[in-house]
Write a structure and sequence with these properties.
It contains 1 helix and no strands. The chain is an all-alpha fold.
Length: about 70
């Protein structure tokens, strides 16, 4: 039988997990400073990412539409 390769996990075994921020796994009951800081940091990163997406949409679609009206 052929020997199978070990999977790296992630998207189709590529090792890329499609996540941004940290990949720290803390339990809900864990109240350590590190876990609380990482949870807050992840929320901050998600907010920045959403602002970037909205800004990109604004500059590509909405702003040019307003310039054409003038």
């Amino acid at each position: 039988m052929p020997k199978t390769q070990a999977s790296n996990g992630g998207i189709m075994g590529s090792g890329i997990f499609g996540m941004f921020g940290t990949v720290i796994q803390c339990k809900d009951s864990d109240d350590s400073f590190f876990c609380n800081f990482m949870k807050a940091f992840n929320i901050f990163m998600v907010v920045l990412f959403l602002i970037f997406i909205f800004y990109t949409i604004y500059t590509m679609f909405i702003a040019p539409a307003f310039k054409k009206r003038r």
